[in-house]
Amino acid sequence: MVYCLRENDYLGENVMPLEAQLKAQFQSLSNLIRRDSIDLTTRSGSGHPTTCLSAADLMTWLFFREIRLDASNLDHPHADKYIFSKGHAAPLLYSLMYRLGYLEAAEMETFRKIGSRLEGHPTLRLPGVVAATGSLGQGLSIGVGMAEVYKREGRDQRVYVLLGDGEINEGQVWEAAMLAGSLKVDNLVAIVDRNKIQQSNFCDSIVNAEPLHDKFTAFGWEVARINGHDLDAVAEVFAQARSNRGKPFAIIADTEKGFPVSFLSGKLKRHGVALKADERDLAYGELPVGDDLDIAAFTVSKQNFAPLEKTAVKIDYLMNGSEFDASKEQAARAAYGDALKLMGGLSDKVWVVDGDVSNSTYSERFAQAYPDRHIECGIAEQNMISVGVGVAATGKVALANSFARFFERAFDQIEMGAYSQANLKVVGSHIGVSIGEDGASQMAMADCGFMRAIPGSVVLCPADYVSTFYLTREILNHDGFCYMRTFRGNRPVLYPIDESFPIGGCKVLKASDADKAVVVASGYVVHEALKAAEELAEKGLNLRVIDAYSLKPFPAEEIRQICEEVGGPAVFTLEDHYATGGVGDAVLEALNGSGIRVEKLAVTAFPESGKPEDLLAKYGVDAAALVKRVQEVLG
Amino acid sequence: MVYCLRENDYLGENVMPLEAQLKAQFQSLSNLIRRDSIDLTTRSGSGHPTTCLSAADLMTWLFFREIRLDASNLDHPHADKYIFSKGHAAPLLYSLMYRLGYLEAAEMETFRKIGSRLEGHPTLRLPGVVAATGSLGQGLSIGVGMAEVYKREGRDQRVYVLLGDGEINEGQVWEAAMLAGSLKVDNLVAIVDRNKIQQSNFCDSIVNAEPLHDKFTAFGWEVARINGHDLDAVAEVFAQARSNRGKPFAIIADTEKGFPVSFLSGKLKRHGVALKADERDLAYGELPVGDDLDIAAFTVSKQNFAPLEKTAVKIDYLMNGSEFDASKEQAARAAYGDALKLMGGLSDKVWVVDGDVSNSTYSERFAQAYPDRHIECGIAEQNMISVGVGVAATGKVALANSFARFFERAFDQIEMGAYSQANLKVVGSHIGVSIGEDGASQMAMADCGFMRAIPGSVVLCPADYVSTFYLTREILNHDGFCYMRTFRGNRPVLYPIDESFPIGGCKVLKASDADKAVVVASGYVVHEALKAAEELAEKGLNLRVIDAYSLKPFPAEEIRQICEEVGGPAVFTLEDHYATGGVGDAVLEALNGSGIRVEKLAVTAFPESGKPEDLLAKYGVDAAALVKRVQEVLG
Question: Which NCBIfam families match (chains A, B) (predicted)?
Fold first, then answer.
């Protein structure tokens, strides 16, 4: 048996059985935290009290005895990290913060009210929160990302992740578990609050998750199963976790939802239901707090770490012509891979996460050069994104790569990452029907609308090597969420190597005083627009061609001015994307109220397999389709 | 040891060791299938030959000896079903179909060409394919849905799912595995082709998936691990699978990618690379096919099943007033739950899949009434959607429910479902900031753009009880993918119970000859639009208010006519959704080129926690914001 002393250090060397006095004190403290959690939800009339009660003994011990926090700065980069992956236990977190002295009583009154840092689920508004939670199943992945960075950098920091036992239905938990086991992330501790009740029913009546111990073991974890309300067991298991080496550590804590309150404990229909005031008072009666409780004596975990400087990435690389052969056609993905490798050498803050297909996205060029800053996550896109969010939470810029299509299964994780203010860049290759023979299941056709909808997002879709190269630099330097889509096939280089591509800009690729209409295109099909314009020019019909590489921010004012200047019965848009959410819709918005009609050329059916040129033709997004439409409209 | 006889029945009673002659014949057949798979990819210059070779022995035995197919109709509802979840093994499937006589040689020439049924990954164009694959990790879930329906209906049918060993990185596989284990779906057989090589590297260098046997065991499966190139073992394991009862059955087949061709077998950099013609010929030399091969003798699995009538759902329920209390405010989700329960009683083709939160989406009202047609999938949205696709593939209409936000992590699965022509209805509750205190992680804010982008989709967002009730009927009757968003809070009933709500329609809620402008709103905030209109009417400023409940098909022509008739400097749109992809963009498109400006009121920042009314006000999508904007614009 290994028990903690009150004054033990954090290396697990100096331990002995718990003193009776400490135990009594702790029981009072844990009950006080329970009372606070109940009170928060009762006063706000909403929230999840019972899920706080089940985890209270575990998390109170963790926060008051185990975890190393900075006394003044919860966000200190050298502190241990905690993630309430079961984000609906937010009141428990806030109660712990309050009793640890990080929150004042007055702020506790603001819970779930507009303007408060104490939101319904934990958000970045509150110091110490590394990523917003509330959409279940993402916290363990975030923890893997953080812990892996600490491990590789030789930093003595642990990451504790609190999971619900309903939450472990989510496959992303098992993606994270598999990766953590494979990487042997032994500074990661998962705490599964096995309280046996989900929102709608008993867990095992919904999906039987047992044998849970065997599951984590089979996924490469060291596992301990304890009674999560037995203080001796709780103390012991955290000491075990602390001295554990070689594998990630899972604590499966059998608890009761609502424990120990008689009318809550193990009862259904209490999930997400705040207690009425009279129920709260009854509950308090079953949560005794001794008069002699000395909270200050517990706060051994608060230390004063040295400050650590945090600098943003600022890369000012200019191309010199050695990067590529400008005489050859190039794929956007190749430019991305080259830029990533070159710029990865200029800042060690650049980290990359991959999903097996790095030899398709060309992020392998970075991976091979900087394996110490590369995390291969396998074919598990949800986990990859959230691992990236975790990497970013350690102060890095994290780039996540896959086929753009496969990110669709991680849109929730991406939105949570942007919401978490993660410095995350998502780069998707293989956009549109122009990938050809592999067929619709591999084509990103519906990505732009979602990505553009995310508040504050940057969405880029470059058309050649040079612009892709420089836009890679721009997203590295931009502090916040960016999405860039790259294409698969080789296409001519459009720009000189000293061209600049600011986020929010666009390029006029072809212009004359005789232009009769404007074409706005984005990505791969910019080349089709140019081809059409050349063909029509030979027939005496001149088009102005715009490369709208920045879908968000969209250069609305500039494009509107050009369209108004050129005039004509319509503006033409061309995109290798479905008709909703892409450049056509962006131009529609830019021309809002102008009276200028937008003739949108986009894909409107599920594509099939075939040669890229055949598909572009079939779905009406190639040069010939544009020529035809322009001639129809311009007569 | 249990071996199959050539003429055994399918109940596993009558078995003995393989004859030597059969074994030799089979080896020839299996090599012929391998040759075909190589040839397809060589001739098309793309595709994945090596992954076909590893699975060839397993799948050739399965298709020629085990599976029960109808001789003339691969889609026969009484046939066994197969899912190539590793969809890039499509050439193997096509080669099997060819040698079984379902495909002609001429059609084999069309592989990966435009217009072909033989696409890069399997699609519904080809008979026998129950769902399109190619986006990995979804097939086992589809199999669970199908097998569970067969089991509950007492139908003696098995579902075989072929998985890659890279694919099992996907958490969705473990979501499906957990549910299958929990439900004891013992007519489901997973075949894991453990060929040890993924696209970019050896599997275990990417993510170590071992011990794989322990993983499936811990998830509640019966597991057999075999050498997937040992014919005796292959024969035995399928016999075991056939007689297995009480648990789903997993075959983990150790194979070699590219087996047995010396220059392919176990080699990296051969994933997704077609052989050149000379390599193909070399490979043929290592794939001997005996002159005495008698393929016809193998086709014992092709039977003639009785035809089964398949009828569409056609529910003509009309409300009679007993459904709800019209004097009380009602939530859209309540109308959905009531309609689902009522109409679930009118057609036993209606099935429902849930993700734990049925007491929030109110689908529990169906679940309690018809538990035999309800599958609870737990907190695992990707699996839930694909289980729904599987249920639909058995000829049912499948409704999948969760908070609309949580579907974002399953957008790929949803798009694959629509692409698979599944009769799937996705119904998301808790839309927008109007859910209140739970905060942004629970709010669907970016769903409409993606759902509208999907080809052929129907997207609905009703504003009251009656419209939600009838639109539930409409999506049940509509053959194809539909998405409906329902709101959480209670709001007044707007319509009489005999109103009709066709898909593609809209409703004018307020109109007069004196109208000065049009407001188009959707969902919860229709009530805010009405409130604003009443307030402004008192000041002598009349608005025409439109309830745009059908976001797709959008009644563009009707709304454009109304806007042109009413006139005014702008049309106002109001939505509890981000500014991209929703009703504002739909109206922009409807008014394309008209010169009428759209004043879009939508949410443009990540929302916080708070009371619904406070949030609607803060993000500028309530009646007051609309009044202010209208007054600013109309002077």
Answer: PRK05899.2-5
Residues paired with residue B306 on neighbouring β-strands, in sequence order: none
Q: Which residues from B are below 8 Å from A613, CB to CB?
A: none
Interface of B with A in 216-275 (CB under 8 A): 217-220
Helix (H, G, I), strand (E, B) or coil at A91: helix
Quote the Cα angle for A453-A454-A460, to 5°. Answer: 80
Find the helix or strand (DSSP H, E) in which A81 lies: strand A81-84
Output the CA–CA distances (angstroms, integers) from residue A487 to A37, A391, A428, B247, in the order listed: 51, 26, 9, 45
CA quadruple B549, B553, B555, B556: dihedral sign: positive
User: Please, are residues B166 and A356 in contact by the beta-carbon 8 Å criterion?
Assistant: yes
**Contact at CB, A134 and B173, closer than 8 angstroms:** no
Q: What is the mean pLDDT of residues B562-571?
A: 95
Q: How confident is the model at residue B76 (pLDDT cuts 50, 70, 90)?
A: confident
Which of A119, A175, A236, A381 is flagged as catalytic?
Answer: A381
Residues of chain A with pLDDT under 50: 1-16
Answer whether B490 touches A (CB < 8 Å).
no
Residue of B383, B450, B571, B603 to mutate for A, most A C-beta atoms under 10 A: B450
pLDDT, position B310:
54
Partners of residue A445 in chain B, C-beta under 8 Å: 453
B595-616: average pLDDT: 97
Partners of A250 in the beta sheet? A190, A223
Q: How far is B381 from chain A (nearest CA, A)?
A: 8
- Answer left, alpha or beta for residue B167, where phi above 0 means left and psi between -120 and 50 means alpha: alpha
CB contact set of A561 (below 8 Å; sequence gap of 6+)? none
Those of residues 182-221 in A touching chain B at CB distance below 8 A are: 182, 198-201, 204, 206-209, 211, 214-215, 217-220
Three-state DSSP state, B307:
coil
Q: What is the ipTM of this complex?
A: 0.96
CB B535 within 8 A of CB B560: no
Residue of A nearest to B113 (CA): A610
Q: Are A120 and B438 in contact (CB under 8 A)?
A: yes
Strands A542-547 and A570-578: unpaired
CA distance A562 to A568: 11
CB atoms within 10 A of CB A281: 12
Cα radius of gyration rounded to whole Å, chain A: 28
Residue B504 φ/ψ region, left for φ over 0, alpha for ψ in the -120 to 50 degree band, beta for the rest: left
Q: Of A208, A359, A450, which is closest to B450 when you measure between CB atoms?
A: A450
pLDDT value of residue B18: 72
Q: Which residue has the tokens 């409704």?
A: B399
Residue B521, pLDDT > 60, answer yes
Give the count of beta carbons closer than 10 Å to the beta carbon of residue B9.
10
pLDDT for the residue numbered A70: 83
Strand partners, A485: A428
How far apart (Å, rounded) are the C-alpha atoms in residues B425 and B304? 33
Residue of B nearest to A568 (CA): B593
d(CA B597, nearest CA chain A) in Å: 4
Which domains, ranges and CATH numbers included, belong to chain B?
Answer: 20-298 (3.40.50.970), 332-485 (3.40.50.970), 507-634 (3.40.50.920)
DSSP B424-463: EEEEEESBSGGG-TT-GGG-B-SHHHHHHHSTT-EEE---
Q: Report yes or no: A145 and A375 within 8 Å, Cβ to Cβ.
A: yes
Give pLDDT, residue A299. Answer: 58
| pLDDT value for A538 | 97
- DSSP class per residue in A323-344: SS-TTS-B-HHHHHHHHHHHHH
pLDDT digit string, tens, across residues A66-76: 999 887 788 88
Helix, strand or coil for residue A300? helix
pLDDT of residue A10: 35
